[in-house]
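chain below, 303 aa
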Amino acid sequence: MQTRLDSRQCEAFLSVIDHGSLEQAAQALNLTSSAISQRIKALEMELGNTLLVRSRPCRATAAGQKLVQHLRRVAELEQDLQSEFAGQQSAAISIALGVNADSLDSWLLPALAEFLIAENILLEVLIDDQDHTHDLLESGMVLGCLSAEQNAMRGCQAVPLGFMRYHPVASKAYCLRWFPQGMTREAARSAPVLTFNRKDKLQAQILLEHFGLQEHAYPTHYVPATTPYNQSILLGLGWGVIPDVMLENLDQDKLVRLMPDHPVDVALYWHHWKVQTPRLARLTNTLVRQARGSLRQIKAPNE
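prediction:
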């Protein structure tokens, strides 16, 4: 006999995933922590799998991630269906997307703003490195993501969008201090590098490929916000990489392109579930069309 999921148990489980703890989930649902725990245990017994790792924060197991994926998709389908039955095609729905910071800070919002307003979509953005946004989709935290991952997971599609082209740059004052003879291997070993966060590997990739320097063989700043990151380069704290969609808006007189013949192109893909509601399908069409108009469509030649 097929198991039917209990809506209250599923609600408790999702609330813990969203809030990170049984206590906060209990507050959100106006229940006790004990009641939340009992509902999740009952759900685990019903499905015959451990769904939740009770850590800080709580996180879903592999089986729990599959359930989260299912529940997110069902909730999104139900929102659209309820709106249709109520004769309110434009009733607001909430959609969570996983995006990389550089896309969010450059082309993404201008590309989607008009559509989101017209379709009355409430956007929840989860930011991660483009090599890790796909994890958010796998975990069920988002319904779609911008990712450098080319291969789609089961039940999903990966649509190529184009390339973000990154240029290694530094301020003129920085170059006078650290690279007076140009960016050489010896100079790069001592010169401070600006990295977005510890997941960001673009600078490490450049130093390994062109100078044979292993990661952590050079001093590194970590500045995990786009505007302060770019400002740090302009202020001469370190050299770093900036995509051309942002570089054109910065003061070119203060910057030097360190390796003008060796830009780094990062391919982006839009991952989404094959089965989509009409509104999410229209969002996909809009995002793909706008992205292909904003991003480069030809990869830089290998040097």
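The radius of gyration is 23 Å. The longest strand covers residues 156-171.
thats it, cya
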